[in-house]
Amino acid sequence: MDKLDREIPLCNLDDLEEQQAIELTIDDRRLFAIRQDNQLHAYWNICPHLGIPLNWAPNKFLDLDNALIQCSSHGALFHIDSGKCIAGPCTGQRLQPVTLRAAEKDYFVAADQTLPAAPLNLREQALADLEDS
Ligand code: FES
To answer: How would CATH label the architecture of 8-132?
Structure first.
């Protein structure tokens, strides 16, 4: 497994409103962070159901009530603060957390953490299959 060999700036807490998300891609791995109760909660953008990205649009990860993370594919719902799935096909599983380091209100993706495998991109795969046929 690859390890992150450097610390990477993510954002300042004041860059985000409450319940707002930010995305970042590091070495082809996508992560997102959501501000809730003046903290950032960060996860790799991989749904535990099928291993594909969760969001339905850039920086859009939450359900209509802005209370839970919702997977755009099959609707699994996750707690923002724990990443635990509480409804849907992967109930009981968890999103993979990203370790952050905070310096005052500046947040960084911490170095020396293990990177997940790059997620599948079913859309790109389908387009590639079409081109090959
Ligand atoms: S891929 Fe996320 S719920 Fe199915």
So the answer is: 3-layer Sandwich (2.102)
